[in-house]
C-alpha cells in the first residue's frame, strides 16, 4: 500500500482540525476559510476566548449548529449554517474586508492547491473541476492576516505533492504562508524552505522529503 493511502501515515480531517485549533492562542481574531478550515471551529478548547470572523459580516461566530437548531439566515462565507456566540456583531461586507485588509486578524486558516517553499499560496483555479472559479476574499486574508495557516492533504488524489518548489496554479498571495498543516505532517515555512515541525504516524523527515521531492529541514526537536 502506498504512503498516499496508508492509514498509519495519515490523520483524519477532524484530527487535523483539532491539531490546528490547539495552535490558536487565547484572544486571537481568526478567519476560517471556505471548506475544511471551517471544521476548526468545532475543536476550539472550551473556555478559550477565540473570536471567529467570517468575511460575509459576522464577528463572534460559533461552531456548527445542532441538527434541528439551524437558523437559515445565519451562514458563513461558504454558505454553511453557523451559530453566533453571545456578544456577536453583524456588519457590512465592506467593513468585513476593511478588517481583513487592515491587519486586524491574527490568524486565517485557508485551503490550498499548492504552497511553494517560499510561502506562495495557490488556492483557486479557473480550470480544476469543482474549484472556486475566482480568488475572492482569500487574497485579502492571505496578505492581511498576521499568520496564515494552510489546511490541506499533502498529496493530490493522483499522488502529486501540494508542497512544491514553485506554484503552477494562479497565485492567491506571494510569500504569505506561515505554516502548512497536512494529513501527514505539519510544516513551517522558513527562509530556507519547508521545515517539518511535526510528523504524524510512521512519517519521517526522510519519507516526507521523498513524497514531496523537496529538501526539508527537521524542526521536530526529536533525536535522529
UniProtKB/TrEMBL annotation:
Keyword Transferase: yes
SUPFAM superfamilies associated with the record: NagB/RpiA/CoA transferase-like
Matching SMART domains: CoA_trans
Keywords, ordered alphabetically: Transferase
A single GO molecular function term of this UniProt record: CoA-transferase activity
InterPro entries named in the record: 3-oxoacid_CoA-transf_B (IPR012791), CoA_trans_fam_I (IPR004165), NagB/RpiA_transferase-like (IPR037171)
Family: Belongs to the 3-oxoacid CoA-transferase subunit B family.
UniProt-recorded name of the protein: 3-oxoacid CoA-transferase subunit B
Taxonomic source organism: Microbacterium hominis
